[in-house]
Amino acid sequence: SSPLQKKRRAATARRQHLKSAMLQLAATEIEKEAAAKEVEKQNYLAEHCPPLSLPGSMQELQELCKKLHAKIESVDEERYDTEVKLQKTTKELEDLSQKLFDLRGKFKRPPLRRVRMSADAMLRALLGSKHKVCMDLRANLKQVKKEDTEKEKDLRDVGDWRKNIEEKSGMEGRKKMFEAGE
Fold this sequence. Notes:
The protein is an all-alpha fold. The chain is built from 6 helices and no strands.
């Protein structure tokens, strides 16, 4: 094998080695991240959710339930407020990105394809509900009766005047006229 092929094999092997090393590194990072999230979750739960101790008497249980309901309501309000803030910031972000896009002035043109469309359909697409004029081109054509066509046929039978002139010109035409005259 040539030195060029050896170089290619070495480059391919090196690339594969680097790829596998990167994948292993990414897998260990994902595991570390998951473990860190679990530790963070346990710390949060320990801080915000103290272990539950159920009191013995009925009145103490009712007090505990009232406290829990109040806590649930406050958490629900916080969640609602956070959702509203998130929606507001998302909308602002979309508006700003649209403004940025408009300022750049780069509009991506969609790939256009040819579409067969009648004049009516085109006007309807352009004008929408305002389109009332019918562009049927055959609508304004003259109606032809059979009698008219028969008259035209009679005229066609007479023949083209140019043909008659050509036939009568030259020696052949004079000969025919002479024979016809006899």
